[in-house]
């Protein structure tokens, strides 16, 4: 069923201006536009909008949402499972906070006593759990193992490793204008995969997850893009393609 922008806004409960903004920043571009310039949304567009709003409700900025849903490795069903898990955790946290508020009211009335620790139960200012979930699923173990091996190297060994990293990144940057699934890109990414497994133990899933981290973590993106604009995104897509091709 096709819907006009006002119909979508009314259905979802957001403003037409918000939908226009999503279109302008490339977050949600409707599949069709009439000759008069009216936006027409398909069922697929509505599914994408649902994902956007789920992520937004969970506290993700629009820039991060755009990166996630535009990733070649994005899986809608997997995202829904992770979002469900996060919402259940959030519901549990809110239930704990409500219980703490109820106890605080009773404490204020003199009905019960509360310890200082009890006064802050359910309050959690930890970082975004989705990114932690991704790290746990895709390769903290491999990253930690690599870091441990690097620390054991001599200064000369670390210098040579740095030079090898530099050479590989430059070779990948040289083909970044190709499509990530091109033979040239895949050959360059294979060299990176093989080298990582000399200093660590990266499964294909971990390799794919590491590529996603290159985009999700601004520190990675900044350092990688020094070799060429857009290299981090290119590597993520090429690494995802390599993992998918080589998974039995």
UniProtKB/TrEMBL annotation:
Keyword Ligase: no
Signal peptide: none
Boundaries of every HTH merR-type domain copy: 2-71
Keyword Transcription: yes
CDD domains: HTH_TipAL-Mta (cd01106)
GO MF annotation: an example: DNA-binding transcription factor activity
PROSITE patterns: HTH_MERR_2
Keywords: Activator, DNA-binding, Transcription, Transcription regulation
Name by which UniProt lists this protein: MerR family transcriptional regulator
UniProt source species: Lentibacillus amyloliquefaciens
């Amino acid at each position: 069923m096709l819907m006009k922008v006002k119909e979508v806004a009314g259905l979802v409960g957001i403003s037409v201006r918000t939908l226009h903004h999503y279109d302008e920043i490339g977050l949600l571009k409707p599949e069709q536009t009439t000759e008069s310039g009216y936006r027409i949304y398909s069922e697929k567009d509505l599914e994408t909008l649902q994902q956007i709003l789920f992520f937004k409700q969970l506290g993700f900025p629009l820039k991060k949402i755009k990166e996630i849903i535009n990733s070649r490795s994005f899986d809608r069903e997997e995202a829904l499972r992770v979002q469900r898990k996060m919402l259940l955790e959030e519901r549990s946290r809110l239930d704990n906070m409500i219980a703490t508020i109820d106890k605080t009211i009773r404490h204020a009335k003199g009905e019960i006593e509360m310890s200082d620790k009890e006064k802050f139960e359910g309050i959690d200012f930890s970082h975004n759990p989705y990114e932690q979930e991704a790290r746990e699923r895709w390769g903290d173990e491999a990253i930690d193992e690599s870091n441990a091996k690097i620390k054991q190297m001599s200064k000369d060994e670390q210098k040579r490793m740095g030079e090898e990293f530099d050479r590989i990144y430059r070779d990948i940057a040289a083909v970044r204008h190709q499509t990530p699934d091109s033979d040239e890109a895949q050959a360059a990414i294979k060299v990176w995969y093989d080298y990582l497994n000399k200093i660590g133990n990266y499964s294909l899933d971990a390799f794919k997850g590491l590529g996603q981290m290159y985009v999700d973590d601004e520190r990675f993106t900044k350092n990688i893009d020094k070799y060429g604009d857009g290299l981090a995104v290119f590597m993520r897509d090429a690494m995802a393609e390599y993992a998918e091709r080589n998974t039995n």
